[in-house]
Design goal:
Shape: elongated
Strand content: under 5%
Helix content: over 70%
Length: 110
């Protein structure tokens, strides 16, 4: 648990440093690595049911993407569609989990 917290702190520090740089100075490899780290953190937060944390990481990812070299409009549009589809799937999973918990609670109350 402490190791993952340290990794998250390091990732956050690296992302903050990258965001502080001007977009022209952002290196593609560094941007890709940071995006990958944030996406991994998002998946970890989703798997633990930390939807608020996942949304915060999604916002950080958007900011990070804005600071990095822009990709072509088609790739960006496709990436946005994929990201939104993934977010919808995650939210549906969270809703299903919450509804299942509610059914269990209602069943236990009877």
């Amino acid at each position: 648990m402490r190791v993952s917290c340290c990794i998250l702190a390091i990732t956050a520090a690296l992302a903050s440093a990258a965001l502080a740089q001007s977009p022209a100075k952002a290196d593609d490899a560094v941007c890709a690595a940071e995006r990958s780290a944030v996406e991994r953190d998002m998946e970890l937060a989703r798997s633990k049911g930390q939807m608020l944390r996942r949304r915060q990481l999604a916002e950080r990812l958007v900011a990070l993407q804005g600071g990095c070299k822009a990709v072509s409009a088609d790739q960006s549009r496709a990436a946005n569609i994929e990201r939104l589809e993934q977010e919808v799937r995650e939210l549906r999973e969270a809703l299903d989990d919450a509804e299942e918990q509610l059914r269990k609670l209602k069943g236990a109350a009877r």
